[in-house]
Specification:
Elements (H helix, E strand, L loop, with lengths): L2 E7 L2 E8 L5 E5 L7 H12 L3 E5 L10 H10 L2 H19 L4 E6 L1 H12 L4 E7 L17 E7 L8 H13 L4 E6 L17 H18 L1
Parallel strand pairs: 3-4, 3-5, 5-6, 6-7, 7-8
Antiparallel strand pairs: 1-2, 2-4
């Protein structure tokens, strides 16, 4: 349905998968595997739902199916460059749609980057929907900058910075700052429960609920 496009990213260029040609803009941020068919399919789903979706290629052409390789790609990713690429994606969507407000969603690695870009581009990001995403320790986050409505989706059996106790604390911290934040924890689910290409973790019921909630978030705020 979509196509690969090239766009400017603060002095450089980035490519991404663009789906849809009408409706509000949504940035779709990849898992640590790279810009693969699953992420492109999610962008297509947003297009079908009436949005213009752009999934930037933050690894600039590299994709893997091996966890060890994915971990190396994640750790070697330059966060400053990723921030520029994401900001460029927002700019392109604003140009394409003629709308100032943009939504952002991301999965796994992309979940953490969803929150990062919401803090870095409060002028544009009006709604953010992170899915089971932790953050690298060096991820630049300034929660006070955030103006987006945040609704996150997390797994009961996740670990680390995406574990339920960790995201409950983040939710409490954001609310203490006066931010609008709701983090859902889906019972019985595991990390990557939305990824329907991974039978070992995919949860159809939780995915359907999370998708409905995400569409409602964007409809209300974009």
């Amino acid at each position: 349905m979509g196509e690969m496009v090239e766009f400017k990213s603060n002095g450089g260029t980035c490519t991404g998968y663009l789906a849809g040609d009408s409706g509000p803009g949504v940035v779709v941020i990849q898992e640590w595997w790279g810009l693969n068919d699953h992420i492109k399919d999610i962008a297509d789903r947003f297009a079908i739902a009436g949005y213009t979706a752009l999934a930037p290629d933050l690894y600039h052409g590299e994709v893997t199916t091996e966890p060890d390789s994915a971990g190396k790609l994640l750790m070697s990713m330059n966060l400053a460059t990723a921030a520029k690429d994401l900001s460029g994606a927002i700019d392109l969507l604003q140009q394409r749609t003629g709308r100032t407000k943009v939504g952002v969603t991301g999965f796994c690695m992309g979940g953490g980057l969803t929150l990062m870009v919401a803090c870095q581009r409060p002028d544009a990001v009006a709604a953010a929907a992170p899915f089971y995403g932790g953050m690298r320790p060096d991820t630049p986050i300034n929660w006070e900058n955030m103006s987006a409505v945040v609704e996150g989706h997390y797994a009961e059996h996740d670990r680390g910075t995406a574990a339920p106790e960790a995201i409950r604390q983040t939710e409490a911290d954001l609310r203490a700052l006066g931010k609008t934040a709701t983090f859902h924890v889906y019972p019985g689910t595991h990390h990557a429960f939305f990824n329907d290409t991974r039978d070992e973790v995919y949860d159809a019921e939780a995915s359907a609920t999370a998708w409905t909630r995400t569409l409602a978030l964007f409809q209300a705020n974009l």
